[in-house]
Here is the input.
Amino acid sequence: MSKKGKAVLAYSGGLDTSVAVAWLTEQGYDVITMTADVGQQAVDLEGAKSKALRSGAVKAYVLDLKKEFVEKFVWPSLKANGMYQSTYPLNSALSRPLIAEVMVEIAKKEGAVAIAHGCTGKGQDQVRIEVCANALNPDLQVLAPVRDWQFSREAEIEYAHKHGIPVSATVESPYSIDDNIWGRSIECGILEDPWQEPPSDAYTLTEDPWKAPDDKEYIEITFEKGIPVAVDGKKMGGPTLINTLNLMAGRHGVGRIDMLEDRLVGFKSREVYECPGAITLINAHRALETLTLDKRVIAAKKELEIKFGELAYEGYWFSPLKDAIDAFINTTQEYVSGVVKVMLYKGQAIVRGMKAAGSIYSHNLATYSEGDAFDHQAAVGFIKIWGLPIKTWRQVHESKEAIKIPAQ
Ligand code: ARG
Here is the structure.
């Protein structure tokens, strides 16, 4: 047992977190790493385990958390049509409370005194992980070696060599990437200039929309109580369903996002995302709500959706307001079951049809053809009373600027 006790480190297998293992060990901690599989594209889980141990970890957890991630974080967000600033489907933000929760659980199991992460002092992931971990267990210390050490890139590499940590010889990506099953976040490099169009090499999940197939493709997504359960009639578990849509919609260039984002840490930053499955599902889910929910419920929900997006973005996942919003949203989702037909074409996922057993669209009320059941005469009295307040107002206050009709 080391002098400071055990620390559970969120470990990606990259250079920063590997150096963090050695650095924390030097500071007197026994480091236990936790590598989460949340559906990243290029994750070498076995490699991560052996690299963690080689870097000095006393134990290395590698956990497949795809199902938990989808069921406890992605689906609640989808039910809320969760987006930050109406644009970003929160893919990175949603994984952090899960990572914090799992680290807190491992700390309990292992009797650790601290959790640790490899975030810098400029990002938002540090805020999310620390706020969530503090909420779940305020007694745990939080260590952020990358934020604390004063290494330059060169010094970090030298430190790695000294401690026998393999530094990969592969050419480094010009971007900072974070990805999981719900999407991929791309930052830094040339993207820091908002005038520059993101180069094609920034994307790996989506085809350039202008090179996507000339033929449109239709898919049908079945929802049960707000949750997607089947694609083209084929039942699938959450992770498989999202992966299927990532592939289908990605082929058509769906889900590219390029935004100037207001960070929680006070500055604006240019962010690029690709979220083909997420965008397809949010479009479909939102449409199905228009068919199945009352108009005032939709309007009230829209306001809470904005709040939901902010809370998830800002690290307030485990907050009482978020719980209360979830309760409202879950009530509404009781009715959001049905099938949505989506057309994928050149970067777009457009809803082209929908049906639901609980549809509150009434053809008899809406039709202008045979079978019209709308009471036309009821309109007379309705208009009289609906217009009464402004008629009364105008009788007292004349219109200031009447439109002048030229003589004919
Ligand atoms: N701007 C996004 C967010 O804050 C993406 C973060 C990506 N994280 C990363 N470590 N590259 O949610």
